[in-house]
Amino acid sequence: MNAKKTLNIAVIGGDGTGPEVAAEGVKVLKAAAQLEGFSVDFQDFDFGGNRYLRTGEILPTGAVEELRKFDAIFLGAVGHPDVPPGVLEKGLLLELRFQLDQYINLRPVKLYPGVETPLVGKGPQDIDFVVVRENTEDLYCGVGGFLKKHTPDEVATQTAIYTRKGCERCIRWAFEFTQKRNNPKGKKLTLVAKTNVLTFGHDLWWRAFQAVAKDYPDVQADYNHVDACCMWMVKNPEYYDVIVTTNMFGDIITDLGGIIQGGMGVAAGGNINPDPGGVSMYEPMGGSAPKYTGKNVINPIAAISAAAMLLEHSGQAQAGQRVMKAIQSVTGSKMKSQAAGKMGYSTTQVGDLVCEAL
Ligand code: IPM
Ligand code: MN
To answer: Which of 94, 188, 229, 321 has the fewest CB atoms lying closer than 10 Å?
Structure first.
């Protein structure tokens, strides 16, 4: 996307602490835009659990069309204690990912300076890789059903769908991304799958991966089974540069990635539609953390990292890098911990510190 003078951003604060962390992201976006000489315009949308409990609708008619008009979407969190699990996740988050065809879920796993990792003896130079998760297929399609429900003979199916187009576009994007990332330790893209058991779906992924790899001879095309990947992520995270993987496996390994980079208060993700005119959505991974709501204690670093990704992928790469640097100076020299209530600062103070560090 080319740099535009104004970035129009839809903000869905969502549930629990979502609006609090989103507000800090917005604060940093405003400050970064001012310093870099462009403007940002925000429009709030009240989608989430409270609206659903009030009106019975999650995404009102026309909402997706409305959101399509923005340059990007910034999401706080979804998940409400009074709404059954899955309702908001499916009706809001997955619905937007699917309808806006955000086929890349980009999850950097980067240990910032000063942040504690549970991996003994590992530091920021060891934990710095990116997971490219396919975001529109696999078990997430919602294909399946029940037979003889609520009887002793009940049958349930949940089908994983993989298409050549779906895996190939994700794999190609991941190769391009690896090339651009240009890791000085060597450009390597690791396909993470389970070809020894999922001999249909992941065979398709494997063949697409081999075919696309031919167009990127400068990138080492590597492969790990997903179970081994979990082991390596803990034992030798420095092995990885970029991982490309399926939706379900990507969901699982990115929580592992989240904890080795210091926890859910730090990890961020981008749901990206890289096609011309595509609208992407950026979010912290932390969830709505209902018990901390309204206390001004939740960590906004993940949301601010999501804001940095938004800039990076919306034609304002320089501003994005500026925010990333500011985050690292705050984690490295100010914050005591990344855990809610233990940061040494409030949510809003951490946002202010990042703005000062810009
Ligand atoms: C994530 C989340 C979602 C997912 C849930 C909330 C539906 O875990 O973004 O990783 O499974 O993709
Ligand atoms: Mn997840």
So the answer is: 321
Helix/strand/coil for 218: coil
In a domain, 112, yes or no: no
Question: Any idea what the CATH number is for the domain that residue 42 is in?
Answer: 3.40.718.10
Last-in-domain residue among 240, 261, 282: 261
Which residues pair with residue 281 across a beta bridge? Answer: 73, 271
User: What is the structure's pLDDT at 5?
Assistant: 86
36 lies in some domain: yes
Is 251 near ligand 1, meaning CB less than 6 Å away? yes
Domain match, 256 and 277 both: no
Res. 286 pLDDT band, cuts 50 70 90: confident
- CB of 93 within 6 A of ligand 1: the answer is yes
The fraction of the chain above a pLDDT of 90, given in percent, is 98
**130 shares a domain with 253:** yes
For residues 9 and 12, what is the distance between their CA atoms, to the nearest angstrom?
A: 10
Does one domain contain both 16 and 98?
Answer: yes
Greatest C-alpha distance within the chain? 65
On whether residue 266 sits in a domain, the answer given is no
- In this model, does residue 1 exceed pLDDT 70? no
- Place 3 in a pLDDT band, splitting at 50, 70 and 90: low
Q: Which residues does residue 220 pair with via DSSP β-bridges, in sequence order?
A: 188
Could you give the CA distance from residue 285 to residue 14 in angstroms, rounded to a whole number?
Answer: 13
Which atom of ligand 1 is nearest to 135's Cα?
12
* Domain of 193, in residue numbers: 117-261
Question: Cβ(155)–Cβ(184) under 8 Å?
Answer: no
Which of 195, 227, 261 marks a domain boundary? 261
Query: Which of 89, 256, 281, 309 to mutate to test ligand 1, by most ligand atoms within 8 A of the CB atom?
Result: 89
Q: How is residue 90 annotated by DSSP?
A: I
For ligand 1, say whether the CB of 75 is within 6 Å of any of its atoms: no
89 lines ligand 1 (CB under 6 A): yes
Whether ligand 1 lies within 6 angstroms of the CB of 253 is answered as no
